[in-house]
Amino acid sequence: MFNGIAGGGAEDLPQLQSTMRAIELACSYIQINTNPAAAEATILSLHQSPQPYKACRFILENSQVASARFQAAAAIKEAAIREWSFLSTEDKGGLISFCLGYVIQHANSSDAYVFSKVSSVAAQLMKRGWLEFTPAEKEVFFYQINQAILGSRGLDVQFIGIHFLESLVSEFSPSTSSAMSLPREFHENCRKSLEQNYLKTFYSWAQDAALSVTNKIVESNSDVPEVKVCNAALRLMHQILNWEFRYSKGGTKGSINVFSDGMRSDTASSRKTECVIVQPGASWCDVLLSSSHVGWLINLYSSLRQKFAFEGYWLDCPVAVSARKLIVQLCSLAGEVFPSNNAQMREQHLLLLLSGVLPWIDPPDVISKEIEEGRSGSEMIDGCRALLSIATVTTAVDFDRLLRSIRPFGTLTLLSLLMGEVVKVLLANSNDKETWSYEARDILLDTWTTLLASMDGSGGNAWLPPEGMHAAASLFSLIAESELKLASASATTDEDDADCLASVSAMDERLGSYALIARAAVDATVPFLTKLFSDRVARLHQGRGTVDPTETLEEVYSLLLIIGHVLADEGEGETALVPDALQTHFVDVVEAGNHPVVLLSSSIVKFAEQCLDANMRSSIFSPRLMEAVIWFLARWSFTYLMLVEDCNLGSNQLQSLPSRACLFTFFNEHNQGKFVLDIIVRISLTSLMSYPGEKDLQELTCHQLLHALVRRRNICFHLLSLDSWRNLANAFANDKSLFLLNGVSQRSLAQTLVLSAYGMRSSDASNQYVKDLMAHMTSSLVDLANNSDLKNLAQQPDIIMLVSCVLERLRGAASATEPRTQRAIYEMGLSVMNPVLRLLEVYKHESAVIYLLLKFVVDWVDGQISYLEAHETAGVVNFCMSLLQIYSSHNIGKISLSLSSTLLNEAKTEKYKDLRALLQLLSHLCSKDMVDFSSDSIETQSTNISQVVFFGLHIITPLITLELLKYPKLCFDYFSLISHMLEVYPETLAQLNSDAFNHVLTTVDFGLHQQDVDIVTMCLRALKALASYHYKETKAGNTGLGSHASGQTDPNGVFHEGILSRFLRKLLQFLLFEDYSTDLVSTAADALFPLILCEPNLYQGLGNELIEKQGW
Predict the structure, then answer these.
(1) Measured between alpha carbons, how far is 25 from 31 in angstroms, rounded to an integer?
(2) Residue 801's CB: how many other CB atoms inside 10 A?
(3) What integer pLDDT is reported at residue 910 of this predicted model?
(4) How far apart are CA 1092 and CA 588, in angstroms?
(5) Hey, CA dihedral for 756, 762, 766, 768, is it positive or negative?
């Protein structure tokens, strides 16, 4: 193509025209899908040409084909970014000026996407030179833009000026910026400069542009061209307020002080609705607050709304949508933009916005009816978003107070009425998922969550005002009744309704929000729930045998989910606390049996106990209802059962409350706790034994309920004294029906039973308990392996199922290893070593069994290796060596290229699982060097471990392809092992043969170019260890990596660099010319230093080569 930037002379014209025709033709071919490869190559040649600016400019100014002009603009951008460092200052400025001039000159063009692209190119080039241009040079560009925005050159040019600022702000925002192959610091410095020096100015320009056309819009009776400009200005203002402010003068992102208690950010992660808090700093006060800007915006929207009140389409037209978005955004204004000593200004600002938003949402019933009759629901939804934004920057008390100055009730009452209306609409249209009410419900629930979440954990000091409590109680009653009606209706519908047929946890998020509303008024809601539950249970008993109970059962199911969320939090991964609201209320209660929470809990436990009766079970307790029962008992027991006084205290000020003492003592070990615990264990055994094939129910029982019981040590002491627990352990060991549980449940149940051994009074007793529990499992595996007809017997389906079941149980027990039970689990694994090896040979064609065998060994070694003495470690290492040899000898894990694509994918998946298990096994063996509780020296152990890992690498490395490394988990495990091996046993890698060694280093090279920072870090650590080892060894007179490090000449006479030389080149290329996280700089430097020490001459040559290129 043609060089240069300025327009070409007459002698260039034929070539320019030829280029233009070629690009036009290529674009037309792509549109009609004719020879697309050649067309794409033609366009690519333009993009990749050195300095194609004259040709691109000629195409933009002369071509009649819009797509050709688009490609020319894209080529300018790519070439300029690529060649920026070689362009003169005049050329850089000339490119930007040309792009700006082009969009202004063609402002009235109908090809919007072309001028949008050129505008975007101008913005990208301006950012690329941002840190180079002087303030005066920037001023030249912005003067041109400001003149356009002022409107003196017409509405089209005014719109173009605003649109360019949109492109510029987007380009400077980290989330929408274009890649430029520049460090993150460049982008951050550009962002800081724009935010501190220009963003506020852009906002003011947008304000002025909107003001300049407002009167014409309001006075006109039809759509006028000014609307386009106004919409663009409003959109730009919204975009600027959506900026993540960090550097604004007078304020920082962390400086939030809204009303007396400040803004909360603790609930943002639990919300479905995005709400961006606007914190631009004190310097923005004059633009946003002191200039009557908010009042103008509210009046503009109100005037247009009133004017077009009978035009149904208007609510969804662009200018109306943009105005509402900006109003909603201003509702979340926070931080130092409000002077710290002027709380009244904050309240007036929010009250003004709330007054403007009220007509969108109030009265709720009237507006809802209009929407049902055909009016757009977008305004109502934006009104809900405005309430959420206000809630995000206020406390519940301040939120409620806002409306009282203009209405006889508080904002919480309005929120309750609005939510209540939405719930009614949802109930009436329960089969229609596309209604506005679903979105409105989610937004309003987020609003309640935002207001109430911090109060729920505040120690009970922050209560809602009485009117707010009444509003919350009324709303929760309506919600609960509507949920019961939906549940009842779901019993008679054949539709696959997700809300009705979902699993126990499917509605968890929504029910969590309902629970917060209930806890805001527990004095009313807990007795209300008790009455609802008692009524449904009574109805079940009254109609038993005569009335179809399905509808009532669905209502009970729904109630159990709601009550479970109200009474207890999830507690996953942490100690569950009784919600503060339930501890601080009911202050008049002095007897534990009369506490509303105790009454509600007891009624549910008594109802659940009825499932132990076979007749009741067959008539009432369906598998679906049992799921809800088990889920509730798991959640409830972890929060209330046998509370330890120093664990579940909540806030200090709560400890002296009499009502709290009643709540905490009723279900403790000295009162009803042990009795309830026995009921729960018997219910668990019933759900496992009496509901065969109910996978979800069994998984809930094993993984949630039973596991919740053994998570607290004090409960374990009582569990082992119960006949019901002994019955469960005996059924686990001997009852064939429990062998029908799926693998996950088998593993979880074994883990739970072994963990309960902590309840034994001594370590010897705990070990004996585990031995007795697992004896049947180990003996069955030993007997099977010793059977003389094992090869034929092992292929029978029932034997395969038995082996799989036993292995899952052994794996579950192994994963429950603790110091008290370590010896018993070690002996359990020791007793099945030979059977495992025997079964590995027999089941070489059963990939599922092979995987279970490997995973058991992995989990067992992981739990045992750090406790073993030297001779025990040697035995485990020898066992692992034998396992690897058998796995290798039978070619397990290799893939036949003759397989069909489907079978090949399945084989890859199985291979991936096996290889990952083997990698984990080798990694666990290596961990002995880092964590070792044995009393012996580890020198001998290290030798044995390095040998088995060395052998393992020989087996694994040929099987791990670059394709398999695209599996993230396998990739992480592989590089974790390689990094550790090279840091601890570098000599092991040096002993690999040439093919295996090169394969490992090829994967390291692959890992260096991954997106995951952790993977790249591990590869860099591996390189550092490898180079350091070679340098130290050679300095000591040894060979180090030997032939691997020295260059070699192949039979064709071609010289190949050594591995260290190759990685020195790659690492320098990586550091100097590729995009990477700054978090990698330190680790990369650590890897680079020993590589330089190993290859100083090459490093000097590369440095000289780089300097020469830069000079050119």
Answers:
(1) 10
(2) 12
(3) 67
(4) 78
(5) negative
Q: What is the largest CA-CA distance in the chain?
A: 103
Task: Kindly tell me the sign of the dihedral angle through the C-alpha atoms of 98, 99, 103, 104.
Answer: negative
**How many residues make up the chain in this entry?**
1112
State which amino acid sits at residue 61: E
Domain total in the chain? 7
- DSSP symbol at 276: P
Looking at the structure, tell me whether residues 715 and 849 fall in a common domain: no
Cis peptide before 658 (omega within 30 of 0): no
Q: Is residue 907 part of a domain?
A: yes
Instruction: Report if residue 7 sits inside a domain.
Output: no
In a domain, 753, yes or no: no
Handedness of CA 405, 407, 413, 418 (dihedral sign): negative
How far separated are the first and last CA of the chain, in Å rounded? 22
Question: Within this chain, do residues 343 and 385 fall inside the same structural domain, yes or no?
Answer: yes
Q: Which domain holds residue 64?
A: 12-86
Q: Do 436 and 546 belong to one domain?
A: no
| Secondary structure of residue 741 in the 3-state scheme | coil
Written as six digits, the tokens of 575 are 């100690």
Cα 872 from Cα 881, distance rounded (Å): 14
Q: Tell which of 551, 567, 583 closes a domain.
A: 567
Report residue 92: phi and psi, to 5°. Answer: -60, -50
Give the other-Cβ count within 10 Å of 85's Cβ. 6
Element (H, E) at 1055: strand 1055-1056
Residue 258 in domain: no
Tell whether 343 and 417 lie within a shared domain: yes
The span from the CA of 1048 to the CA of 3, in Å, is: 44
Measured in whole angstroms, the distance separating CA 1011 from the mean position of its chain's CA atoms is 17
pTM: 0.83
pLDDT reported for residue 937: 53
pLDDT in tens, 163-218: 999 999 999 998 888 888 787 788 899 999 999 999 999 999 999 999 999 989 88
208 and 313 fall within a common domain: no
Give the DSSP letter string of 679-726: HHHHHHHHHHHSSTT-HHHHHIIIIIIIHHHHTSHHHHHHHTT-HHHH
Answer yes or no: do 281 and 185 share one domain: no
- From 705, 739, 773, the end of a domain falls on 739
Q: What is residue 459's predicted lDDT score, i.e. its pLDDT? A: 41
* 215 shares a domain with 93: yes
Residues in the chain with pLDDT values less than 50: 1-9, 249-269, 458-461, 497-506, 647-655, 895-900, 903-904, 938, 940, 1111-1112
Handedness of CA 647, 650, 653, 657 (dihedral sign): negative
DSSP state for residue 278 in the 8-state scheme: B
Quick one: 814 and 731 in the same domain?
A: no
CA distance 236 to 165: 8
